[in-house]
Design brief:
It is a single chain. This protein folds into 2 domains: 222 residues, Spore Coat Polysaccharide Biosynthesis Protein SpsA, Chain A; 227 residues, Hexapeptide repeat proteins (UDP N-Acetylglucosamine Acyltransferase, domain 1), CATH 2.160.10. It contains 7 helices and 40 strands. The chain is α/β, with parallel strands linked by helices and 456 residues long. It has a 17-stranded mixed beta sheet that branches. Strands 14-17-20-23-26-28-30-33-36 form a 9-stranded parallel beta sheet, with no helix packed on it.
Length: 456
């Protein structure tokens, strides 16, 4: 028999979110709310987790994890009824059960471990996570007798006026000793709304002489849950602040932390500098010594060491060491920029590979292209990659020099060290070490020297 299992309640309708998306799948700093809860539970050492979902759910249960089993609440009849759906998966298989709501993403693994440890050491039937002065409405209150013993949990909507001063709040996280748990749940009387409430189990345990204990978290904010978009914003603000603080403690400089937005999935190496109004999303990695921003968005991209990205958008791309981008440029998904590449202002790169030490100074579109090393792309150059039916590839060899306002009509190859004159429309392949000019571009007899390229 296992020592611990966990039940995560995620079957609520979330009607106050006014959304077709299940409440627990709404993201906060790049991860769905439910992921924070599941990660905290699994990190606590619990290997057996039951996720309770709505009867017709397809979205939550699609998140496959070998450590998770799923139970479906056929009819939404309260938290106690939701918990009971896990009975067939857990009865006689575990000694203790951790129960937690799926919309409480701020619960820390450390807090869960302390709750579990106190539960085992005290030998309690139930151990409840509580906190004082939680800055959120709608939480139930802990009612104690004159000796400080927990007698019941009063739901917020049922709180008598004379007890409105109670400032110990129910966190919705419990540890239960499995013995007698299921029979006690099944014996609960439905509320006036016909619901079986998990909180009513506390009265049942107390009246049967069971032991009830409480534990408080390090931060009262851990009890914050999400039922509305306002609460989602509140919780996301707390997560964002934790992310920023962790980055700074790890050696990252945030010039203005309050104007910096970093997803929980982002990694930033030490000695990087993040300037204001920068957004780092998804699976983004920033290498040591890089400077990002201001006014920059990076999504699902890898940025090497000592890079500089100013006022630009980078999506699904790779920048190797010492690359520079911006301002006002856009790297679209599928692009790779090798070491030492310079991308200036108003440059768009899409599904292209730019070789080492190449330069694309300004006002250019490079799409579906492969550039060798030390290629120079003049201002206004366009790879004309779309013929109206499909995208075509442009290949530019190393040390090629593409003159300003060149139109490279794909599919086309420019050989190594080849030169296109300014304003050329290149419709055919260009041989290595050759010069082409004109509309359409035609070869010249002898390639001009690079020092005379200002004439092209």
């Amino acid at each position: 028999m296992r020592l611990w299992s966990a039940v995560v309640l995620a079957a609520g309708t979330g009607s106050r979110m006014n959304s077709e998306t299940p409440k627990v799948l709404h993201p906060a700093c790049g991860l769905p709310l439910i992921d924070y809860v599941i990660n905290s539970v699994l990190d606590s050492g619990i290997a057996s987790l039951v996720l309770v979902v709505p009867a017709k759910d397809r979205m939550i249960s699609a998140r496959v994890n070998s450590s998770i089993s799923y139970a479906r609440q056929i009819t939404p009849l309260g938290t106690g009824n939701a918990f009971l759906t896990a009975k067939s998966l857990l009865e006689d298989k575990t000694k203790n059960i951790l129960c937690i709501n799926g919309d409480t993403p701020l619960i820390e693994t450390k807090t869960i471990n302390e709750l579990m440890e106190h539960h085992l050491v005290s030998g309690a039937d139930v151990t409840i996570l509580t906190a004082n002065q939680v800055p959120q409405e709608g939480l139930g209150r802990i009612h104690r007798n004159q000796y400080g013993q927990v007698k019941k949990i009063i739901e917020a909507e049922e709180l008598p006026v004379q007890q409105g001063e109670i400032q110990e709040f129910n966190g919705g996280v419990y540890c239960f000793r499995s013995e007698l748990l299921w029979s006690r749940l099944e014996n609960l009387t439905p509320s006036q709304r016909g619901e079986i409430r998990l909180t009513d189990l506390i009265v049942e345990v107390d009246q049967s002489g069971g032991q009830i204990e409480t534990v408080q978290p390090t931060s009262n904010l851990e009890l914050l849950g999400v039922n509305t978009r306002l609460q989602l914003a509140q919780v996301e603000g707390v997560i964002r602040e934790k992310i920023r603080n962790a980055c700074m403690m790890d050696g990252v400089t945030l010039i203005d932390p309050s104007a910096t937005y970093i997803d929980s999935t982002v990694e930033i190496a030490s000695d990087s500098v993040i300037f204001p109004n920068t957004y780092l999303y998804g699976q983004t990695r920033i290498g040591s010594g890089s400077a990002v921003g201001p006014n920059t968005i990076i999504i699902d991209s890898s940025v090497g060491e000592d890079c500089k990205i100013l006022g630009s958008v980078v999506q699904g791309s790779v920048l190797e060491n010492n690359a520079t981008v911006g301002p006002f440029s856009h790297l679209r998904p599928g692009s790779t920029v090798e070491t030492g590449v310079h991308i200036g202002n108003f440059v768009e790169i899409k599904e292209s590979h730019v070789g080492q030490d190449s330069r694309i100074g300004h006002f250019s579109y490079i799409g579906d292209a492969t550039l060798g090393s030390e290629v120079n792309i003049g201002a206004g150059t366009v790879t004309c990659n779309f013929d109206g039916m499909e995208k075509n590839l442009t290949v530019i060899g190393s040390n090629a020099f593409i003159g300003s306002s060149s139109m490279l009509v794909a599919p086309v190859q420019i050989g190594p060290r080849a030169i296109t004159g300014a304003g050329s429309v290149v419709t055919e392949d260009v041989a290595s070490d050759s010069l082409v000019v004109g509309v359409p571009a035609r070869p010249r007899r002898q390639k001009r020297s690079m020092k005379n390229m200002d004439d092209c």
